[in-house]
Structure to design on (330 residues):
């Protein structure tokens, strides 16, 4: 094992912000029980923010971003993990206050690590990453709330994004009639290939006006977009339906009323991937390796990037121009 290894390091001083590949030593890594040789990481919206000067994600500099990683255990003080184990580590403080996945090696507390389920490769795990886990958790919560394919159509907002693409593909795999909302006219074929039954524009979800109650269109919705879109979606959900909200791409303020909740029994389900309890997390990764796993996870939904290509690729996601998922080979 060489003394030095490569990592993407972001640094911020009074006058300068930099994103560069540097050589780190093992002493640079934070405390943790398990040393992992990272095989793959991925790109999420949060990683875009962590790599930009005004992202307000990183707590102190210099820092290694990357909220997701998958790799092989090199050494472990945690009896649950042995040298050679294939593992996934996402969320918690990874890539926020604890050095993350954009590094050839990562040292991670054992409590944050999920064994790679059988039926999933390390690369597929990162094609999912936090975005895929969030989509899966959204679907699980909607189904726990009673959603089934026979109840009606299910809307996915931000459908070409990371969470959106995987939600479309997983819902289609489970037999739902999926309505995909997108701002990207050129990507309709992509969404049909993922399994979307209908494609609508963002304006058909929210056209600048929000009614307290509107025509009931959807039995459920996966919404990573938030803002006015969420308020508009809530007004169009069928009686007893639900919306799983995970994101704020369109903003954090939601100008809604109580009427969808008190007159139609609509439920708003909050989705948090970061501190999702470990038991739920492990079970869901197992489902993502089995009944939720869509075809085309590597071929259709994800593209590849190298550590060297990261600075350019990270900027795409902040501009809302990224499509699907990026797997980063480390
Ligand atoms: N709660 C959690 O645990 C959790 C986990 C992961 C992500 N998130 C959050 O979920 C959100 C989406 O993450 P992501 O990884 O899917 O990001 P993403 O890949 O950038 O996807 C977001 C999508 O939203 C649409 N969009 C972009 N700008 C928009 C705008 N101004 N108005 C309406 N729609 C817009 C675009 O899709 P179209 O062009 O197809 O419309 C875009 O591809 C982010 O806010 C992220 O922080 C939360």
């Amino acid at each position: 094992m060489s003394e030095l290894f490569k990592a993407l390091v972001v640094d911020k001083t009074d006058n300068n912000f930099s994103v560069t590949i540097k050589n780190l030593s093992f002493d640079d890594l934070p405390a943790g029980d398990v040393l992992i040789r990272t095989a793959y990481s991925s790109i999420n919206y949060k990683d875009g923010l962590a790599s930009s000067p005004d992202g307000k994600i990183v707590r102190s500099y210099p820092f290694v971003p990357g909220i997701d990683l998958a790799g092989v255990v090199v050494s472990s003080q945690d009896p649950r993990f042995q040298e050679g184990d294939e593992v996934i580590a996402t969320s918690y403080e990874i890539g926020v206050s604890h050095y993350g996945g954009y590094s050839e090696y990562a040292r991670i507390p054992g409590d944050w690590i999920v064994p790679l389920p059988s039926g999933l490769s390390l690369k597929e795990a990162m094609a999912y990453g936090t975005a895929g886990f969030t989509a899966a958790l959204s679907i699980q919560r909607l189904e726990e709330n009673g959603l089934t394919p026979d109840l009606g159509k299910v809307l996915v907002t931000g459908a070409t994004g990371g969470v959106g693409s995987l939600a479309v593909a997983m819902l289609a795999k489970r037999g739902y009639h999926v309505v995909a909302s997108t701002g990207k006219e050129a990507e309709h074929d992509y969404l049909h290939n993922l399994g979307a039954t209908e494609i609508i524009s963002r304006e058909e979800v929210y056209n600048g006006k929000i009614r307290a109650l509107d025509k009931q269109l959807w039995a459920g919705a996966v919404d990573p977009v938030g803002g006015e879109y969420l308020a508009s979606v809530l007004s169009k959900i069928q009686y007893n339906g639900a919306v799983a909200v995970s994101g704020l791409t369109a903003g954090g303020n939601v100008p809604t009323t109580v009427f969808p909740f008190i007159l139609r029994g609509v439920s708003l389900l909050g989705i948090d991937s970061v501190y999702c309890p470990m038991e739920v997390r492990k079970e869901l990764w197992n489902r993502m390796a089995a009944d939720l796993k869509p075809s085309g996870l590597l071929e259709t939904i994800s593209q590849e990037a190298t550590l060297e290509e990261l600075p350019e690729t990270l900027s795409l996601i902040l501009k809302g121009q990224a499509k699907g998922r990026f797997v980063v080979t480390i």
Summary: DSSP finds ten helices and 15 strands in the chain. Residues 122-144 form the longest helix (23 residues).
